[in-house]
Write a structure and sequence with these properties.
The protein has 388 residues and is mainly β. It is 1% helix and 41% strand. It contains one helix and 27 strands. The strands form seven sheets. It has a five-stranded antiparallel β-sheet, with no helix packed on it. It has a four-stranded antiparallel β-sheet with strand order 4-27-26-25, with no helix packed on it.
Length: 388
């Protein structure tokens, strides 16, 4: 059988939108964690742009599937030439290139089980010149799960010059965090989970249950609050980072999950050195020197927020258990939440803003916790104007 994968890319500079159809062998679901070796060619792009080379939101459909038949796509990064990197949690990395090729890129030594594996991707702010890409990966070191930040050079569709810039981040089958982004200060911010050790979130010497901040080479900034990589603490499993137009850092975080208790997912406004309370407080509870979330889901609703992206005054994030694209309108230090695409695509994980100012979301229906639909998993482009 052959499956159609439609891919659309947008260049930067002279922006053009291209649509493709790719025919690729459908991976057997029992073997889909194997990385394909072939480079798969696509037809030439079909430009869609105004006469002056610009694009507007009205030129885009409300929603369009641009890639499908993926396996737990975890993160998306857009390259300056309009191509797109996609990580799959089982350990696969794909480059969807502007010239119409879909190429598998080998990432060695990834340990994928539960929520662990190949997670976040981000590019160096000067990627256009240095070609540096960062990966958040789980490894198995003598039977112990650990998370690492790897820095590579991406050359000729191959990862070279591997550097381990941060290691010994506690890992586990669950609660591994994994989101990374460079902030407006040029520093790399990283979310880590508590790795099922709740007390570690309150230990500022541990890298678990934190938001970390490091330089692009892995060194520790002199103004970090605790003399190590830790920027904020008291987190359970944060997986979304985004800066608003004022340069403020927002984060989304998974709340409690037990046999009888769920909910209490969070949107937090992150400040240096602050304690966000886990596991001592959750929801609207307060305690001295601990920060209460800007918004929480309450005890009766679970978002399972897995991402965050900022665009034009709104914070967007995907809901796994909530199976929803959430949009939080930022109103000073508060937010107003609305829900979109409810149950439309199933579990939503990554949300990224593309160079076209469209939203790109990934589904996560093949992660063992959702209902698998034809073509899953997918990357879908969303016109934010359609959410009004």
């Amino acid at each position: 059988m052959k499956a159609k994968i439609g891919v659309l890319f947008l260049g930067i500079g002279i922006i053009s939108v291209a649509a493709f159809i790719i025919h690729a062998p459908k991976m057997d679901q029992e073997k889909s964690e194997d990385t394909p070796d072939a480079t798969e060619a696509l037809p030439s792009p079909l430009p869609l742009a105004t006469s002056d080379g610009t694009t507007t939101a009205s030129m885009f459909p409300d929603r369009e599937v641009i890639a499908e038949n993926l396996k737990i796509p975890w993160d998306i990064a857009f390259l300056p030439d309009g191509s797109m990197l996609v990580s799959e949690r089982p350990g696969n990395l794909f480059l969807f290139a502007k010239d119409g090729t879909r190429t598998a890129i080998d990432v060695p030594d990834v340990r994928s089980v539960g929520e662990a594996g190949l997670l976040g991707i981000t590019l160096h702010p000067d990627f256009g010149h240095n070609k540096i890409v960062y990966l958040y990966v789980t490894i198995d070191e003598n039977g112990q799960f650990l998370n690492r930040i790897l820095r590579y050079t991406l050359e000729n569709n191959t990862l070279t010059n591997k550097q381990i810039i941060l290691t010994k981040i506690p890992g586990a089958q669950f609660h591994d965090g994994g989101r990374m982004d460079f902030g407006p200060d040029g520093m790399l911010y990283i979310t880590t989970g508590d790795a099922r050790n709740e007390k570690s979130a309150q230990d500022t010497k541990s890298l678990a249950g934190k938001i970390l901040r490091i330089r692009d080479d892995g060194s520790i900034p002199a103004d970090n609050p605790f003399g190590n990589e830790v920027y904020s603490y008291g987190h359970r499993n944060p997986q979304g980072l985004a800066w608003d137009s004022e340069g403020r850092l927002w984060a989304t975080e998974h709340g409690r999950t037990t046999a009888t208790l769920t909910g209490m997912d969070e949107i937090n406004l992150i400040e240096k050195g602050k304690n966000y309370g886990w596991p001592d407080i959750e929801g609207d509870k307060t305690a001295p020197n601990m920060v209460v979330p800007v918004l929480n889901s309450g005890a009766d609703e679970t978002w399972a927020p897995a991402s965050a992206a900022y665009l034009n005054g709104y914070l967007y994030f995907g809901g796994l258990r909530g199976e929803t694209l959430y949009r939080a309108k930022i109103l000073g230090n508060t937010v107003e939440l609305s829900r979109h695409l409810v149950k439309k695509y199933g579990r939503i994980r990554a949300v990224r803003v593309g160079p076209d100012n469209m939203l790109y979301i990934s589904t996560s229906n093949q992660d063992g916790r959702g209902t698998v639909h034809d073509g899953d998993d997918k990357i879908i482009r969303i016109n934010p104007d359609s959410l009004e």
